[in-house]
UniProtKB/TrEMBL annotation:
Belongs to the thiolase-like superfamily. Beta-ketoacyl-ACP synthases family. It catalyses: (9Z)-hexadecenoyl-[ACP] + malonyl-[ACP] + H(+) = 3-oxo-(11Z)-octadecenoyl-[ACP] + holo-[ACP] + CO2; a fatty acyl-[ACP] + malonyl-[ACP] + H(+) = a 3-oxoacyl-[ACP] + holo-[ACP] + CO2. This is 3-oxoacyl-[acyl-carrier-protein] synthase 2. GO terms for biological process: fatty acid biosynthetic process. The active site is at 164 (for beta-ketoacyl synthase activity). Its EC number is 2.3.1.179. Involved in the type II fatty acid elongation cycle. Catalyzes the elongation of a wide range of acyl-ACP by the addition of two carbons from malonyl-ACP to an acyl acceptor. Can efficiently catalyze the conversion of palmitoleoyl-ACP (cis-hexadec-9-enoyl-ACP) to cis-vaccenoyl-ACP (cis-octadec-11-enoyl-ACP), an essential step in the thermal regulation of fatty acid composition. It comes from Desulfocurvibacter africanus subsp. africanus str. Walvis Bay. Residues 3-410 form the Ketosynthase family 3 (KS3) domain. SMART domains: PKS_KS. GO terms for molecular function: 3-oxoacyl-[acyl-carrier-protein] synthase activity. CDD domains: KAS_I_II (cd00834). InterPro entries: 3-oxoacyl-ACP_synth-2, Beta-ketoacyl_synthase, Ketoacyl_synth_AS, Ketoacyl_synth_C, Ketoacyl_synth_N, PKS_Beta-ketoAc_synthase_dom, Thiolase-like.
Length: 413
């Protein structure tokens, strides 16, 4: 690492397991599933009828109804999370520091809700009947844009859109900007809400989704021999990154230190990784190299592990390639078993959970791992485990062959 040291000083989530981090965390430790029948639309003609839906979210707790109506759901989640994040971190944006506070929120698909509703209006009533806010509401960067507006953050304001790696890319590049002195703090992570008829249909025709409709809570089963596809989820996960100097100057509680970020491309296929997981391995290697640490220091990996037949074992092979003899000693977990795959929001939520794990010295379980894949001979945590984690790694990979990893270190002053 060169330049400024970068630390984590705040966390927030909205997930299918709870509309705040503490509720989500408690339910994760209890091994509860957030997956159930889809209620947002009629699934009669759909192969998949289940998803990990956010439950009971009320945007008016965080904004007025007029503001909420001018946001797609993924943006509402981001604004709500950003307000919880400011409360958690104790960070105050003022006229004196606003220009040095950035916003970077990854979104994979954007406003599918808005697209579907307005397309239907246009077909039924003509092109003049769609909302004049149609374009600004649906675009992926509006999550970061609205958070910037609501909080008054006037530093760099952008969106990373890299499929299911979007949220972790945002964290990685926000870390890089602070390290290089381009900002003093960043609100970063990922948000997504695409449990719509078009979203489910699109992944169904790819045969990417689980069709275990008769047993929703057991449908998402990363690393299990009987996995049959991922379960779509929704939600948001944000963290506040600051330079160590800024955090210390305000007396912030420091949760962890970001010490490495790596990214790579498969250059192989638009929707499938190479069987050997080469690109995944290269992103992990690059992360360890930037941190200037040996693979043997890593105690925990929060895996991408989506519960797809091909992808899970590619990640296992990549971990074995990078960590060698140390690989079986690493405690792995797959959060998607609990609440599904949040697409662009996944890396944000899962990295927040990883930091929470480091702070609490607890690894949440991977549920539904009943018959491990024959290749899955690593240590996957299946019951909440007490574990000291000096270093922990988060992985996210996505369509287009995009891969990234972030390494966190327990803060030691």
């Amino acid at each position: 690492m060169i330049g400024n040291r970068v630390v984590v000083t705040g966390l927030s989530t909205i997930t299918p397991l709870g509309n705040d981090l503490e509720t989500t965390w408690r339910n994760m430790l209890a091994g509860k599933s957030g997956v159930g029948p889809i209620t947002q639309f009629d699934t009669t003609n759909f192969a998949t009828k289940i998803a990990g839906s956010v439950k009971g979210f009320d945007p008016e707790q965080y904004m007025d109804i007029k503001q909420a109506r001018r946001m797609d759901t993924f943006t509402q989640y981001a604004v709500a999370c950003s307000k919880m994040l400011m409360d958690d971190s104790g960070f105050e944006i003022t006229p004196d520091n606003a220009d040095r506070v950035g916003t970077m929120i990854g979104v994979g698909l954007g406003g599918l809700h808005t697209i579907e509703v307005n397309h239907s209006k246009m077909l039924q009533s003509g092109p003049k009947r769609i909302t004049p806010f149609f374009i600004p509401v649906l675009i992926a960067n509006m999550a970061a844009g609205q958070v910037s507006i609501f909080l008054g953050a006037r530093g760099p304001n952008l969106c990373t859109t890299s499929a299911c790696a979007s949220g972790l890319h945002a964290i990685g590049y926000a870390y890089t900007d602070i390290m290089l002195g381009r900002a003093d703090a960043f609100i970063c992570g990922g948000s997504e809400s695409t449990i719509t008829s078009l979203g489910i249909a699109g992944f169904n025709v790819m045969k990417a989704l689980s069709t275990r409709n008769d047993d929703p809570e057991r449908a998402s089963r990363p690393f299990d021999r009987d996995r049959d596809g991922f379960v779509m989820g929704e939600g948001c996960g944000l963290m506040l990154l600051e330079s160590l100097e800024t955090a210390k100057a305000r007396g912030a509680k420091i949760l962890a230190e970001v010490v490495g970020f790596g990214a790579s491309a498969d250059a192989y296929h638009m929707a499938a990784p190479p069987e050997n997981g080469d690109g995944m391995a290269r992103s992990m290697r690059a992360t360890l190299k930037e941190a200037n640490v040996e693979p043997s220091v890593v105690a925990h990996i929060n895996c991408h592990a989506t519960s797809t037949p091909a992808g899970d074992m590619c990640e296992v092979r990549a971990i074995k390639t990078v960590f060698g003899e140390h690989a079986p000693k690493i405690a792995l977990t797959a959060n998607k078993s609990l609440f599904g795959h949040l697409l662009g929001g996944a890396g944000g939520v899962e990295t927040v959970i990883m930091v929470k794990s480091m702070v609490e010295s607890l690894v949440p379980p991977t549920i539904n791992l009943e018959n491990p894949d024959p290749e899955m001979d690593l240590d996957c945590v299946t019951a909440t485990r007490k574990l000291d984690m000096p270093y922990a790694l988060s992985n996210s990979f996505g369509f287009g062959g995009t891969n990234c990893s972030v390494l966190m270190k327990k803060f030691d002053g």
